[in-house]
Design goal:
Length: 136
């Protein structure tokens, strides 16, 4: 039986790093929402409403594909937000429709200071040379 893996945790807590490692460990297909959104809607996501509109369209497009992969016995890792009940409900719909197993991986957040540094480093808010030595 295939398994749908999804990751939950605060911003910059290491969810994407964990999802990538999990996909390698489980020999699973990895879907990274941020990368897909950037490829499909380059420069279009500027405010939260844009993100919600585009991510809703992406989920609707991916759902039948992910369900088909799971039904064929292929494990899938989703690097997509799972912090709200609505977001987790979508994951439930996927694994229930495919009759697949599922695992939620909770990433414990680090202290606020480290999370802030990771977020700023990742989003390019540090000037050149600043933030070196920080590991995101």
């Amino acid at each position: 039986m295939a398994t749908l893996y999804f990751v939950c945790g605060k911003m910059a807590a290491g969810k994407s790093t964990h999802a990538k490692a999990l996909a390698v460990q489980k020999h699973a297909l990895l879907f990274v929402q941020d990368e897909l959104l950037e490829m499909l809607y380059p420069g279009e996501i500027r405010v939260l409403a844009d993100f919600e509109r585009c991510s809703t369209r992406l989920r609707a497009t991916l759902a039948p594909q992910i369900e088909a992969l799971l039904r064929r016995g292929l494990d899938v890792v989703l690097d997509s937000p799972a912090k709200t009940l609505k977001q987790r409900a979508w994951f439930r719909e996927l694994f229930e429709a495919a009759r697949a197993a599922h695992e939620l991986h909770w990433i414990d957040a680090l202290c606020k200071h480290v999370l802030t540094q990771r977020f700023l480093l990742r989003s390019g808010c540090f000037g050149e040379g600043l933030g070196r030595g920080l590991h995101a």
